């Protein structure tokens, strides 16, 4: 299905059983909660999806399962995080074959590619697939920045459509809009900068805490889109302590604990990750408990009259 590259797109967690196999039953519970809340797409196999621990077969199962669950209500996007160009092309081929609607792509993993190498990497994958691509630009965590000059070259390919903007520089939203207009859609990739990015013109939000709080996340997006800025800010201010759980090395464990608290996940992670223990666990649980105690009553954000 066609992707509009706007709105809230959860970077969903991968659910595991106690036996370290895919927990597709709980996975479906969470995906259905996202759809019910009104998200605009589902993103699989990102950092929150523990992509580096998944086998190719597990990734394919997740794509096929999600496509079956959502039944064309929203697009299904799979992240590509590969070490080689050959591997990335093959991953794109499998995604298309399995029914994915689009790709999110990181630069080459492990090897710190130069600008020319990074551009050619993305170009080769774009040439190999019909699927639309969102480039994940996160130099803070992945040490390679896709600059505006690099995007200038990449946008020669019609299927490079969007950027997951995670540079942590809000002014980059304006730079992208000034340079490319609507040719390059912008989705904020940092939960704690999401509303600020949307207000500066970002088209959407690749979200993390949405995995546990889907309705609140979508409400913020829909309210700001409708010009209800005061209402959006009120929810966002309540949300911020929870959103800060996403900008942490243990973001997967943090968010999975939040999913448990809201009844749409388990805290099982795949080793070498381990569930939180001790003071670290207590600190995260306190943030979650405080959030639940003060959880706001949401307006009817799905109502078309909101506009």
From TrEMBL:
Keywords, in A-Z order: Lyase
Pfam families recorded: DHDPS
What is the superkingdom listed in this entry's lineage?
Bacteria
Q: Any keyword Lyase?
A: yes
List where this protein forms a coiled coil: none
Q: Which residues bind pyruvate?
A: 206
What cellular component GO annotations does this protein have? cytosol
Instruction: Give any GO molecular function from the UniProt entry.
Output: N-acetylneuraminate lyase activity
- List this protein's GO terms for biological process: N-acetylneuraminate catabolic process
Family designation: Belongs to the DapA family.
PANTHER family cross-referenced by the UniProt entry: N-ACETYLNEURAMINATE LYASE
Q: What is this protein called?
A: Dihydrodipicolinate synthase family protein
């Amino acid at each position: 299905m066609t992707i509009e590259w706007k709105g809230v797109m959860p970077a969903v967690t991968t659910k595991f059983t106690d036996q370290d196999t895919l927990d597709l039953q709980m996975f479906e519970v969470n995906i259905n909660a996202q759809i019910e809340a009104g998200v605009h797409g589902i993103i699989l196999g990102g950092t929150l999806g523990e992509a580096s621990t998944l086998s190719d077969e597990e990734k394919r199962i997740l794509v096929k399962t999600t496509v079956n669950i959502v039944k064309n209500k929203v697009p299904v996007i799979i992240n590509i995080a590969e070490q080689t160009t050959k591997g990335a092309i093959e991953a794109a081929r499998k995604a298309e074959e399995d029914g994915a609607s689009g790709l999110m792509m990181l630069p080459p993993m492990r090897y710190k590619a130069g600008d020319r190498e990074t551009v050619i990497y993305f170009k080769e994958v774009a040439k190999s697939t019909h699927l639309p691509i969102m480039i994940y630009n996160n130099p803070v965590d992945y040490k390679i920045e896709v600059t505006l000059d690099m995007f200038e070259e990449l946008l020669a390919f019609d299927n490079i459509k969007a950027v997951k903007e995670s540079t942590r520089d809000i002014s980059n939203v304006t730079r992208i809009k000034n340079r490319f207009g609507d040719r390059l859609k912008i989705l904020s990739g940092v939960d704690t900068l999401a509303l600020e990015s949307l207000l500066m013109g970002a088209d959407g939000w690749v979200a993390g805490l949405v995995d546990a709080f889907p309705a609140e996340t979508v409400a913020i997006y829909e309210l700001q889109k409708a010009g209800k800025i005061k209402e959006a800010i009120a929810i966002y201010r309540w949300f911020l302590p929870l959103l800060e759980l996403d900008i942490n090395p243990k973001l997967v464990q943090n968010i999975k604990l939040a999913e448990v608290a809201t009844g749409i996940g388990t805290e099982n992670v795949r080793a070498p990750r381990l569930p939180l223990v001790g003071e670290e666990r207590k600190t995260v649980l306190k943030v979650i408990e405080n959030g639940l105690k003060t959880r706001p009553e949401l307006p009817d954000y799905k109502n078309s009259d909101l506009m």
